[in-house]
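Researcher: Predict the fold of GMP synthase [glutamine-hydrolyzing] subunit B.
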Amino acid sequence: MVETEEFIEDAKAEIREAIGDANAVIALSGGVDSSVAATLAYEAVGDQLTPVYVDTGLMRKGETEEIRDTFDFMESLRVIEAQDRFFDRLEGVTDPEEKRHVIGEGFIDEFETVARDVDADYLVQGTIYPDRIESEGNIKSHHNVGGLPEVVDFEGIVEPVRDLYKDEVREVARALGLEAIISERMPFPGPGLAVRIVGEVTPEKAAVAREATHVVEEELEEYDPWQAFAAVLGKATGVKGDNRVHGWVVAVRSVESRDGMTARAQELDWSTLQRIQSRITGENENVARVVYDVTHKPPATIEYE
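Model: Structure tokens for GMP synthase [glutamine-hydrolyzing] subunit B follow.
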């Protein structure tokens, strides 16, 4: 990548040239990629850009509030509360690919409504280089490179960070003055917690995954993982107090990587793992056991579905 400040100025010039006097929209997830793309575009064209954040009910703990606070300088920001609509769509859906498509279609519906409301001619996306590679290889079917342009009739698509890797995007985020909560944030999948829930996605499972992931992120901060989270696998027998319970099995995953194309499971201290399992089972009465995933990528993917 060219020098960071030069890249920022070139990217903003590219955005201004592409959009001109028209309106544009961007899906702002709160991840570093979309945050950088949105900030570049907002600095380039101001309120001609409408950032759209959709709360699907599958977000990290406190994420919606963080988005409102972090991007309050964007007067055109739209926050869409769509939790009930997404859980209704996901009821009874268990196939991983179908879940991704259902979430993608739900997001498109929400996004399309806003795009038409603001008469947007252009779509800005936070697509980065590994996104393009994995989408082309059918490793992931729900990347921000797919879906939206086929449904919403845009004159053009602008991807200002399309040639950057994640570490380069972080450099740009720091140079833009974005808070560390954004610039250093771990990657988060487009379908959200749904890909960390094996089987049907329900509000209960999402709540377990959200709270357990929050614990994992807090406890593993000192390890500086590329990505760390908790997934809900199914149910198993456990004992709490004097009672036999049939509670959720939570898998903890923590990996090291440069760009997400490959990854290695981190070697965590036993005391750290015990602290994590104690907090997860203690803070959620519906969790019966916690396991640690030691599989690298490949053969596993980083997320579960």
